[in-house]
């Protein structure tokens, strides 16, 4: 699976998603963050100056997120960003091995500076996913705590926090992972997501003990997402449909805004709406072109028949078999034509000869019998003529006996015909 398609699955959530984990999760996370940063830059350039501060803050957040989260948390990088944290800024930390995320932000209220920590689970447990009837509901934050700026500025505290987060992001705690028992031995297996208890139930209570607990809620901001690259037509169609539904929801939300506050939203939609519509129209056009091209490639072309057959169509070129057929014709013409079956194999000649002898002999017997039955009586008083006729009859009878021999031995019907013929001659 390409990196672009993996990012598409995370951002768009199509109906069919892969049944396995990403081959390069760090690359996917970084690419998503880069695309979000690019989307913020694009919207910031199009939006009203009223929104500039918010988008600039979001751009700084994403840039810091790319620098901090490189598969694990590094102590030096974490300390550098933590010490440069300004009011209104936020750090997003992914504690990979603990299945937890930590948001650190600095706020100023009533001339008091404070640092707020918010922790939540990044991936739900399999039990909760299977028990969900439709969609999962997620509460943000899972737990929160605040520290005064003076407490959070203590170098010892900062060093301890950085070391703890660095080790937690690299070293899994097997007691918090799923365990299977095989051959009376406990074996740690990755059958479920890790319990984020190290962060949510150990680190956060320690921070709460240092200062009073705060119930600040996590604020979710909506922003557009822009994917650039080459997707397959089906994925592009899914993306256009998702983007269209999102724009329709934003339009519906805009109608609920009070008239006094609608000007910034109108300005943003005036610039963003045509860009999104143009992108959807261009994508739809490209999909149509790809579909038409595909239909042309799979449609069978049937040419029209000519009214008259051209002369070249009456001649076969036979580029592969022509020479072979010519050699066969030359060999047949050079052979001497022989009547009968002289060219047949020897075993076949004997069989044909036997059948031919049998049929010839049977025809001869039938001819003798017919001639005997059709014999006419001689009405003459001449003695010599009668003697000659009797001698002829004797020869006929002798011919019948000699020719029949054993041919009628197993056929009573033919023997009866022969006896009738002899009686006719005798009479």
Structural class by secondary-structure content: alpha+beta
The total domain count is: 3
Low-confidence stretches: 213-229, 338-342
Strand content: 5-15%
Number of strands: 6
What number is the mean pLDDT?
78
Question: What helical percentage do the residues reach?
Answer: 55-70%
Largest sheet: 4 strands, antiparallel
Strand order of the largest sheet: 1-2-3-4
Tally the helices: 14
Give the topology string: H per helix, E per strand.
HHHHEEEHEHHEEHHHHHHH
- Dominant shape: elongated
CA-atom Rg in angstroms: 52 Å
Describe this structure in words.
By secondary structure, this protein is α+β, with helices and mostly antiparallel strands. The protein folds into 3 domains: 3-223, no CATH class; 230-294; 360-427, no CATH class. The protein is built from 14 helices and 6 strands. It has a 4-stranded antiparallel β-sheet with strand order 1-2-3-4. The chain has a two-stranded antiparallel sheet with strand order 5-6. Strand 2 (100-109) and strand 3 form a beta hairpin. Helix 4 crosses helix 7 (155-170). The termini are far apart.
Give a brief description.
By secondary structure, this protein is α+β, with helices and mostly antiparallel strands.
What's the SSE blueprint?
Elements: H1 3-12, H2 25-46, H3 52-68, H4 75-83, E1 90-95, E2 100-109, E3 112-121, H5 126-131, E4 143-148, H6 149-152, H7 155-170, E5 179-182, E6 185-188, H8 197-210, H9 233-255, H10 263-298, H11 322-334, H12 346-373, H13 383-404, H14 412-426
Helix pairs in contact: 1-2, 2-3, 4-7, 9-10, 12-13, 12-14, 13-14
